[in-house]
Every structure is written in C-alpha cells, then in structure tokens.
Amino acid sequence: MTQPYTIPAATTIGHVHLKVSDLDRSIAFYRDVLGFELQMLYGTQAAFLSAGGYHHHLGLNTWESAGTAPGPRRAPGLYHVAILFPTERDLAVAVQRVIHAGISLSGASDHGVSKAIYLDDPDGNGIELYWDRPRSEWPKNPDGSLTMFTRGLDLAGLLALAA
To answer: pLDDT tens digits, residue range 74-88?
Structure first.
C-alpha cells in the first residue's frame, strides 16, 4: 500500500447490519415507527428491511445477541447509524412519528450542512435521522473550505413542517 488512494466519489455505504436482542421488537421499531419495509425474514433470527424496495438497507440479527443486554456505552463500537431523508419535510414527519411513538430524543442539532435528530433504538443502538441542506447552502470558511458546527435545532420549527 505505497501509492495514495482515494475512494471513488460515487461510493456509498450499502447497508448496516445490527445485532439486536429481540428480533420482533426491532422489526416493529424499524418498520412501524421509522417506516422501513420488511423485505424478508431469514429464519427466526434475522430480518432485512429497506426503503423503496431495495434488497436491504438494514439487516437485523440475533445470531450472537438474542436476549442479551446492550453493551457498555463507553466501549468501542458503532456510535450511530445515520438515516438521510430526501427532504426536510420527510425528516419532520419521521421525527413526529418517533415522538408520537413515545420514543425519547437524545438530541437535536443544526450542523450547518444538515439538521439532525438523535435517538436510540430498543437495543440502545444510536440513530441519527437527518436532512442535508443543499450544497450551495453549506457554510464555508473564508478560504472556501467546509465548516461544520453543532448548534441547537429549532425542533418546533422542524415539526411544523410535518403538518
């Protein structure tokens, strides 16, 4: 690995596969609250869900985790899964559904480039629901480089878009 390499710009992250302790509970959360579509069950220990009929954006399994408690928060591992919504209104509708389901939010931030809402799934896996502002609106430094920040998000203003 002596030559520099840059991953192609069109590269995307295809799916996330999470260990969960209760498959039915996790399916209910990701399907019934967040709105993912169940594409298939893999026996009684795994499920594949997606948006728009793709084979799967999200895999859930209990192969090594059935009935177990979440791992310690301060241990290495996945920080959160980020779910990008196509419009700000779509984000608002999703957040409204989360709140109506009685799920607590752990944060709401304006990062300049995006608006983000943070919560945990039933197994304590972190989730970021977010919408990217158009690139033309991303904040820039005087030299033209991107700058990001974390400021409080007007949650009431966001939720007003869901009406």
So the answer is: 888 889 999 999 999
C-alpha dist (Å) from residue 111 to 128, 130, 132, 140, 160? 12, 10, 9, 12, 20
All structural domains of the chain with their residue ranges: 16-66, 79-163
In sequence order, which residues have a C-beta less than 8 Å from that of residue 50 and are 6 or more positions away? 36, 37, 39, 56, 57, 58
pLDDT for residue 150 is more than 90: yes
- On whether the 16-66 domain is CATH 3.10.180.10, my answer is yes
Nearest partner of 133 among 83, 82, 79, 84, judged by Cα? 84
pLDDT (tens digit, 9 = 90+) per residue, 97-115? 999 999 999 999 999 999 9
Q: Top-level CATH class of 79-163? A: alpha beta
